[in-house]
Structure formats: C-alpha cells, structure tokens
Specification:
TIM Barrel; 10 helices; 237 residues; binds the ligand NCC(=O)COP(=O)(O)O; binds 1-deoxy-D-xylulose-5-phosphate; alpha/beta; 8 strands; Pyridoxine 5'-phosphate synthase; 17% strand
Length: 237
C-alpha cells in the first residue's frame, strides 16, 4: 500500500500572494485528511516564501495522519523539526535560492554530515528519509547514513514520461529493488501527477509513500473550476 501525502506548499504560496489568510493552510490540511489523504507534507524554505516556520507549528495539532517535513537541515530547520517532532523528516539538499528542489544528496560525499543529522533525528523518535537521485551508488550511500528511508527524486522520470519515454522508469525500479534488499523504505516525489502516478506505482515495488503538491493542487483547480463557476452563476442569477 502506498500512502498519499499532500504537499501544501502551493496553498501557502497563494495565501502569501495577498498577505491575508485565504486560503487557510491549516484548514486545507484538515480538509485533505478528511478527503482521504494519508499524510501532509510541507517544505519550508529559508526565505519562507511559501510555507512559513510558524505554519509548521500551527499545523502540528491538526495533522492526525503522517506529518512529513522536508528541507535542508540548517540549524534553524533542525531546531524546528526537533521541537515539532513530526512523523518523518525528509532531508533535501536545496540551496537557499533554489526555485524548487533540483537534485538529491550526494550520500557519499556528505556521509559524515548525514550520519550525524540522521542520528539526531532518530534519537528523538523522528523517522528519517533522504532525497536521492535514482543512482545505485547513492542508494548504497544512503544505507550507510543510517536513514530509515529514501525519497526518490522523480523529476527526470516525470519529464521523460511526459515525452513518452517509459524507459525512464528503469533506474527507479532498480534503485527501489536495491533499497528494499538493504531494508531501506522507499518514498518518492517531485512532479508526480495524475498522468504519471499509476505507471510509477506499478513499476516500483514496495513504494511506501508519495508526496505530491504542484500537480495535485493544479489538478484540483482544473477539476474544481466548473463547480465553482456554476456556484457563482447561481448566486448572480
Ligand atoms: C523535495 C521535493 O521535491 C518537494 O518538496 C519540492 O521541493 C517542493 O518544494 P516547492 O514547493 O518549493 O517546489
Ligand atoms: N517531496 C515531493 C513533494 O513534496 C512534492 O513535490 P511536487 O509534487 O510539488 O513536485
């Protein structure tokens, strides 16, 4: 069974564009869980341009499914995660000015750093996952860090699948099989969507969790707009 964790960063982006509290991210998190989502993901960035650190605290009492906080483990991020104690922390090696995540960890080069950070989170009862490219030696490197899980960075799969190249799944399948043999749990995320999620799921054994935000929120707009237009027309009639 693969859990769906909804990334609500985009809801905060929309809220921040007007400076008020519409849409309300806590209400949205409550709603996605009510509609069946099995987790909520946030990825606070140092500039807090979408989800803010305060949101991470405000969300905590309202997440009764899995709470996954993603980010680069700078001191401020580590302090916040250790205080909130979410279900899972996903470590992502983003630069401060990254528009969105654009690479996985080099688990070989950063092994010592990752070992320390992962040990700190695990000793506080927080499950750990590290964001990695679908490269076999990076999965072996991830195992050596002591992490519970990996999150496969799915951007290249999503891009190639969109162009019709189904073979782009191969490195992901191979990495998932290796991870499983090493007793590493497998999560995945980035640019997964209604178009590609079934094929991805069917080709990844033991896929524990996907976190989906950008496409899911966009699809919600497309699929919900007819209903809302009708409601406005009804009120204007
Ligand atoms: C790790 C990952 O792929 C997602 O968390 C992604 O980084 C979402 O972040 P943005 O919402 O800033 O694009
Ligand atoms: N970890 C991936 C995530 O949370 C959502 O990524 P995306 O669907 O917004 O690309």
């Amino acid at each position: 069974m693969t859990k769906l964790s909804v990334n609500i960063n985009k809801i905060a982006t929309l809220r921040n564009s007007r400076g008020g509290d519409l849409p309300n991210v806590v209400q949205f998190a409550k709603d996605v869980q009510r509609f069946g989502a099995e987790g909520v993901t946030i990825h606070p960035r140092p500039d807090e341009r979408h989800i803010r650190y305060q949101d991470a605290y405000d969300l905590k009492p309202e997440i009764h499914t899995e709470y996954n906080i993603e980010g680069n483990p700078i001191d401020k991020f580590m302090d916040m995660v250790l205080e909130i104690k979410p279900t899972q922390v996903t470590l992502v090696p983003d630069s401060v000015d990254a528009i969105t995540s654009n690479a996985g960890w080099d688990t070989l080069k950063h092994k010592d750093f990752l070992v320390d950070v992962i040990q700190e989170f695990k000793s506080n009862g927080i499950r750990t996952s590290i964001f990695v490219d679908p490269v076999l030696k990076q999965i072996e490197g991830a195992k050596a860090t002591g992490t519970d899980r990996i999150e496969l960075y799915t951007e290249s799969f999503a891009h190639e699948f969109g162009l019709g190249n189904k073979k782009a799944i191969t490195p992901y399948t191979e990495c998932a099989i290796l991870a499983d043999s090493l007793d590493l749990g497998v999560n995945a995320g980035h640019d997964l969507s209604l178009d590609n999620i079934r094929f991805f799921k069917e080709n990844i054994p033991n896929l524990l969790e996907v976190s989906i935000g950008h496409a899911l929120i966009s699809e919600s707009l497309y699929l919900g707009v007819e209903n809302v237009i009708q409601m406005y027309l009804h009120k204007l009639a």
